[in-house]
Amino acid sequence: MDLSVIIVNYNVRYFLEQALLSVERAIVGLEVEVWVVDNNSADASLVMVRERFPWVKLIANQHNPGFSVANNQAIRQSTGKYVLLLNPDTVVEEDTFRRCYDFMETHPDAGGLGVRMIDGQGRFLPESKRGLPTPWVAFTKAFGLARIFPRSKRFNHYHLGYLPEDETNPVEVLAGAFMWMRREALDKVGLLDEDFFMYGEDIDLSYRLIKGGYQNYYLPATSIIHYKGESTKRGSLNYVRVFYQAMIIFARKHFVGSQARLLTGLMQLAIYVRATLTVLANVWRALRYPLLDAAGIYLGLRVLKSLWSQYHFGDPGYFPDHINYLHFPAYTLLWTGSIFLGGGYDRPFEFGRMLRALGVGTLLLFAVYGLLPEDLRPSRALLLLGAAWAGGWTLLVRGIAHLLKFGHLRVAADADQRLLIIGSAAEAERTLSLLQKAGVQRNYLGRIAPPGEQGNVESVGQANQLPTLTKIYRADELIFCSADLTVEAIQRWMSRLGPAIQYRILPEASSSIIGSHRSDQRGTLYTIDVNLRIAEARLRRAKWLFDKGMALAFLLLAPLLIWFSSRKGTYVMDCLSVLSGRQHWVGYALPDPQLESLPALKPGVYHPATGTPVTDPVTLHQVNFLYARDYSVGQDWMVLWGGVFR
After folding, report:
1. 3-class DSSP state for residue 483?
2. Which of 360, 436, 535, 569 has the fewest CB atoms within 10 Å of its CB?
3. Are 26 and 4 in contact (CB under 8 A)?
4. Collapsed DSSP state (helix, strand, coil) of residue 288
5. Domains in the chain and their CATH numbers?
6. CA distance 516 to 382
7. pTM of the model
8. Which comes out higher in pLDDT, residue 466 or 276?
9. Contact at 8 Å (CB) between 397 and 293?
10. What integer pLDDT is reported at residue 530 of this predicted model?
């Protein structure tokens, strides 16, 4: 057996499918066994592997023992001359395995090998080649010096930034996403250290290979796509904690005396510093638009007040001072709140959604304004001018943000996103069908013929014209049909065109279209298999408002409604429990053995099967699935009304 490929999977079914399809192409000409170790995924990964890839050797764990333990399970049973640890969120080129095999055969000193990696936007990933995290190297990495001086040998030894990405070189540390190792070297130095749950095990094993007398190499002659962020959000506190705790384990294991104490101290300090920075970054990321909107709207209202006082009344002090501290904050809060509830902060560049939300907020504000006493109604004209200013300011903020992020002002809604599909006519038609079934709207520009196909009236051009066609049509998104294209060609185009365009891949015979554009977020997935509305932030907020509003209403009407309720004894406690956030009015029906596969909800006072004799867990799961897929506030109202007054 030439090679044993080992993939550890945890809830990334669609990425795993694409990885296995690329592996299937890459094993041609070699004697290879492929192992998938599933760490108790709840997304039907096991079913997919068994049905679509029956030639894969599968280990199904009943819990999640961690990355190291899972890899070791397969390594001990594998028989290949070489062992490759491969992430499920990767795509390998057709010749990747052959090139790595040939290199290892001609370099008997090599214990391990890594390759060039790019992310989902075609950018080179610096972790493709890394240095050993000594105290100084760890310090420069943890406190940002490596990022400030990316080409410096002194300050960026962690990513070996001074070594060209297109040159083969010895390196100290291999990336766990693609870790090709010689079997006899593993027999000598041992398997992965199971003290590492996730992160750090690749550094530890790479270092042990060097201490065992072997050399690790970085090989850029072939490359892979690595969709980062699919196992742990890299912008999360959990990532900071797990990553730096792994560094502490490494320091205590491999360093002694002052070096060990220094590195451990640095990592502990880094945990607090990076955790603080992560919290601040996450808070800013979540609140930057509401804060900028609120500040701009409030200051604009004060300026408008002065201008209107001078222009219309000829008196700069016409309006009382309390308007600055009573009315303007209320206006600002209502307008920003309407944007929030309308989903304008979920998708900040959907201007139509934001302006509609502002319009609803303005109508509500005028309605409340009309009910106020005369002495609390300063000026309808000022309110109308303020609404116009709020719209103009929020548009300006998002326009500048879009320009800084994308380098242009071509702001488009999803339906206006300009799409090109690269593939055969049949695959392009299948892509459009999948997009339609998944409810994804795009401005379809046309199909680009793959290499080897002669251009015709059905295509807008050929693949060798892709950079030119992308500019001519001002494409925002490209979908590559992998049934008609090599992974090498897809990577080449992604790297050449750069991160300004969104890239997605339709795997062969798959019902999912996959892409990933940020390392701190999960990848983008278009699939007809599941589209659960209950997971949408806008509808989660609507559910929260429904819960609180109905709880308050039921409490106020308790003297009347309690006599008609089916739960008289717990009527008030139910209302208080929902109001405090411990329960929803409507949650999932129990027992449901597959509940983890659905978006999390708090326990419900009632459930979609309330009032029915259904108790079968399989049927209850189907009821829960339909509730999550088709969720609406109206659905909650129907369940609540039927539950309270049945």
Report:
1. coil
2. 569
3. no
4. helix
5. 3-129+165-231 (3.90.550.10), 414-527 (3.40.50.720), 533-645 (no CATH)
6. 46
7. 0.74
8. 466
9. yes
10. 53
